[in-house]
Write a structure and sequence with these properties.
It comes from Musa balbisiana. The protein is mainly alpha-helical and 77 residues long. It has two helices and no strands. It has a domain of 25 residues.
Length: 77
């Protein structure tokens, strides 16, 4: 039934080698962190940014603004 189909190692050509080369190229294009910060400094910076974001959100909620953009206009009836 499938006598005409041959599945030898040459049937895929050099796809694996091409994939390896593409993967290597993608690895070299990945940006390295160039902010010059140590991991501890980065953690402190990120924690400060999160605190500022939380404070901004709390202030907005205190004013009465909506903070949940997903449910905007979807009040249950």
């Amino acid at each position: 039934m499938f006598d005409d189909v041959s599945l030898n190692s040459d049937s895929r050509g050099n796809q694996r080698e091409d994939d390896r080369q593409r993967a290597q190229a993608r690895k070299s294009q990945v940006k390295q962190r160039d902010d010059g910060l140590t991991p501890e400094q980065r953690r402190e910076r990120d924690a400060k940014a999160l605190q500022e974001k939380a404070a901004k959100k709390a202030a907005q909620a205190a004013v009465g603004g909506t903070t949940d953009s997903k449910n905007k206009g979807n009040a249950k009836k």
